[in-house]
């Protein structure tokens, strides 16, 4: 074979190679365009609230203070989205923003339902007048609801809410097993404790030895109760004794 024939054959092979390469590139582009269009179409369908709407929201968990209407209002904008485009984190945050909801968990359930589990706040005390304390000693704000039993009145610096609740539980238990009922407890800015029983007796406990001073009151009270006068206040801020203010004396001083 001459050099001329070899050159012609090489040119033919290169020409065929260019053709196959061009065909392959065009085919690949067509495939990529087709896939892109399919992805865009699928994305449009998944985000179309009319095509894949959220048809139901199933709410579970014991609810005493949060009604269905509050939940509907909280979710009304988020429910306009499709089943797939709805952000469960946003749904959770919207529910947890409700005043009586402590925690919410949300998950999707095919084909068109959201399942929600709610945990409500459990109030154990009034805090600083218009707020509440939950079972963890955390402060929360919520409107008053029917069905809430009489709760103790606790007051103190905001950052001391857990300490005040713990102290109330400790003192309250000691008083309860001895026939008394602790109605309110206050911690002053100077960290002095003030208590009041449900029979109106006020106890000044000071800053230290709260349990010992309560025990001293319990021990002495039977003797005080024998008096003809009504006890108004008992000052227990002494190392060994106490001072008593009588109800009649309180009235005369006014």
Automatic annotation (TrEMBL):
Localization: Cell inner membrane; Membrane
The UniProt record lists the keyword Transferase: no
POTRA domain span: 52-121
Any one Gene Ontology BP term: cell septum assembly
Any one cellular-component term (Gene Ontology): cell division site
Lineage top rank: taxon: Bacteria
InterPro entries tied to this protein: Cell_div_FtsQ/DivIB_C, FtsQ, FtsQ_C_sf, POTRA, POTRA_FtsQ_type
Pfam families, per the entry: FtsQ_DivIB_C, POTRA_1
Membrane topology: Single-pass type II membrane protein
Family of the protein in this entry: Belongs to the FtsQ/DivIB family. FtsQ subfamily.
Record's subunit section: Part of a complex composed of FtsB, FtsL and FtsQ.
HAMAP family (alphabetical): FtsQ_subfam (MF_00911)
Cited function: Essential cell division protein. May link together the upstream cell division proteins, which are predominantly cytoplasmic, with the downstream cell division proteins, which are predominantly periplasmic. May control correct divisome assembly.
Protein name (Swiss-Prot/TrEMBL): Cell division protein FtsQ
Species name: Shewanella halifaxensis (strain HAW-EB4)
Taxonomic classification: Bacteria, Pseudomonadati, Pseudomonadota, Gammaproteobacteria, Alteromonadales
